[in-house]
Hints:
It is a single chain. This protein is mainly alpha-helical. It is built from seven helices and two strands; from the N terminus they run ααααααββα.
Amino acid sequence: MTGKAGVEAIPAGTTSGTPQVLLAHHLKQAKLPTILREYDKVARECAGDGVDHPRYLLRLVELELIDRERRMVERRIKAARFPAVKSLDTFDFTAIPSLNKMLVLELARCEFVLRRENVIALGNSGTGKTHAAPGSRSCRLPEGVQRRLHHRRRPRASADGSARRTTASEAAA
């Protein structure tokens, strides 16, 4: 539908502006940054491949969900304040022959979370406890399940000046 001088008429109830500007605005408002960043590139790919509209939309939404998952993991790693970003891929199991590699890899699958079991890593200094615990961060937890890490107990001075061990929750009180 065209108006005067070949200018495309804007349907009633819509805002004026170019579609790209409006789309960018709406995607920002809807907090869909990956779709905003990728929609044009994916549209060209889909047009070249002859992909229909639902599959184009599916590709965009999949990209958004993958990116959200990645950002969520990054936020959780940052919130956990791990000493360094480590993974089990970089862990040298040959350095500690007494370590049960199969058990560590099984724990990394996080099936214990679904069974509502706890895991406590005990061992001497340098045995990989800190490396293996953050390495399990890559496990995918069910929706709504949050990971909680309990740090070492730290000494706290009592009223008489002597030190005693406290948990993090006691220290916060």
